Amino acid sequence: AYPEVPSSDLLLAELIGRGGMGVVLKGRWLGVDVAVKMVGAGSAMARFLEREAVVLSRLRHPCITPLFGIAHLPGSLALVLELMQRSLRHYLHLRAASASFTDEAWLRCRIAREAAAGLAYLHREHYMHRDVKAENVMLDATLHAKVCDFGLGVRCSSLEEYADAAEGPLSETHTSGVGTPRYMAPEVAAVERHPSRRVIYSESCDVYSFGLLLWELTHHGRAFGDVPGSTVAAEYAPAGVRPPLELPAGFDVWKRLISACWQQQPALRPSMKRCVVTLCLAGKGLNDKAGCGAAGRVVATEEQKRVKEL
């Protein structure tokens, strides 16, 4: 069961976001700034909001946006969540003209590692996200990352339920079927072409999407940005076509990780836990290159300890 937030305790302010499943407003809950994600009560999206509440109520991790409770407002159902500064997509858009990947390599490595840690924990708890993308990684005021938006989250043991969602209202929204088409793994994209098929797939589909997220972190653009997402899902992903990797010398570990994550065969992709380990080591290397010396090694050692806790 998820906690209830009395509507009388909640004050709504300005609109701060809009997506396929509803709107997000800034709010105040007992004097604290919060994010309020709202859909119409009794609408087709309400059951996905309730699913998100169930999933989030079972998760506790520093790299997952926490749920404070669910509120029943006049005509609306709402999740009350931690208020974050901006999405990773927004951040990359802001930085596109002023900073290259190499200028911010250590920071972007930390963002990637924290997003990976949130997904690794999610997978350890036997859930999968199914809509991993830059819009669903939020950054706080100090640019630490947390994974958000679990409306398509599902336990790995009940993946067949996606077939009902694919034929229902979600097929008309931004997150068509089981995710955003541009970032769908090939095995999930096949489901979109044949929505009536019951195809079992694993959490490795999140790893594939994470590979595209890493590409966007390192290349300052949207993957296949000039191609419709539906074309990417229906033609590019199943054919093994991927965005070109154009990283400077010295970043081979990133190239290897991205290439491993978006492997065509799910069994060949690394686990999210392995991605965390790789990004920790990459971060240590960036610390050393920057001359951080002993301090950088201390940071890397602390990150290694976090990995063991996964």
Automatic annotation (TrEMBL):
One of its GO terms (molecular function) is ATP binding. InterPro entries: Kinase-like_dom_sf (IPR011009), Prot_kinase_dom (IPR000719), Protein_kinase_ATP_BS (IPR017441), Ser-Thr/Tyr_kinase_cat_dom (IPR001245), Ser/Thr_kinase_AS (IPR008271), Ser/Thr_Kinases-Pseudokinases (IPR051681). The keyword ATP-binding applies. ATP binds at K37. Coiled coil: none annotated. The keyword Transferase applies. Residues 10-281 form the Protein kinase domain. Keywords: ATP-binding, Kinase, Nucleotide-binding, Serine/threonine-protein kinase, Transferase. Gene3D superfamilies: Transferase(Phosphotransferase) domain 1. It comes from the Eukaryota. PANTHER family: SERINE/THREONINE-PROTEIN KINASE TNNI3K-RELATED (PTHR44329). Belongs to the protein kinase superfamily. This is Protein kinase domain-containing protein. The lineage of its organism: Eukaryota, Haptista, Haptophyta, Prymnesiophyceae, Coccolithales.
